[in-house]
Amino acid sequence: MMQRIDCLRSIRNRLDDCLVVTIMGAVAAEMQSLGHRQNFFYLQHAMGLASSTGLGLALCLPEQKVVVIDGDGSVLMNLGGFTTLARYRPKNLVHVVFDNESLLSVGGFPTATSTGSNLEEIARGAGVGWTRTVRSLEDFTRAFDEASAAGQLSCLVAKVEAAGPKAYVTDLSLLENRFEFRRCVERSSQHSALSSQPVKNK
Amino acid sequence: MPVSLKNSQVVYEALKKCGIGLVSALPETWLVHLIRMAEDDPKMILVRLAKEEEGVGISAGAHFAGVKSAMLMQNHGFLASINGIVSFAQLYRIPLLKLISYRGTFGERDPWQTQGGGVTEPLLRALRIPYEFLDDPAQVEKRIADAQTLAYSSLHPTALLLTRELMWEEAQP
Predict the structure, then answer these.
(1) Is B56 in Cβ contact with A49 (below 8 Å)?
(2) pTM beyond cutoff 0.90
(3) ipTM score of the complex?
(4) Pick from B22, B121, B21: which is nearest to B78 by CA?
């Protein structure tokens, strides 16, 4: 079965010019084990709000690519967030959801995706224009590139094994990450000389 | 509708003077004019939410992007957003400017609003969120500016309670 860390490794070099917001737990720990970068923000709590954070970034910086790396447990805590994302459908946002059908970091309890809830269909039903579910590394990498080039809000659900790192606490302090990330956004938005005139949506 | 259009305008203009570029909102009766003003303003990003807690993430994203934001919600929406406030805004020191319509106080006629009124201020105090009332149109601009100043200097949420006195105009008998 597909491993999340292999997926993360495969797209890591495609994230250099993106602002990346991840969830807590295995995703944050594995991203950091592959090497932290200043354009990565790890939301180490507040499950469900990584995609909302990505939406705020994407709406305020329409020229900046934003990637949200989410998980089934977090998404299930904020299903309404899909409808808000779809309502404003920022073209510059790629929403990756690793679905291991489990709340891994608290003991591996099965989530509702293990009993048939389908996150891609929920995203599509909410109105997300580009959606895909993948189960192999090759498909994941290709789908990520397609999503990035889709020119519309996309949601890529990656079915992965419920396996993660040995430990979840890393030596990157939450506040260090937060302040560094904000500086990084500031620099990158200066570089791209933003005429960030927001697009009005209902 | 007896929601005060004039005082909603006073509040909206105060937000604009503070440089607010993004407003997240979930509709409720007292907020209808404010939300309409945000919608009609081509320079304002309005994000209509499914649930108020999303607004914490959206305001954090806006903060990272260098955009000042405000959250419009009912006090029951404040209750619904508490985990986001604690485990995002307070954990990560994100400034939030919250405008909360203070339902369920003296004069409330809707039975379903009556429980939230009694717990709003105790919860704000428990969360150590500094708050003030917006009850006098003459004070609105200064209070909003002051709440924003403290939110950014402390990197912490602050709140303004929109009161019945400000938001509601009883029909003359």
Answers:
(1) yes
(2) yes
(3) 0.96
(4) B121
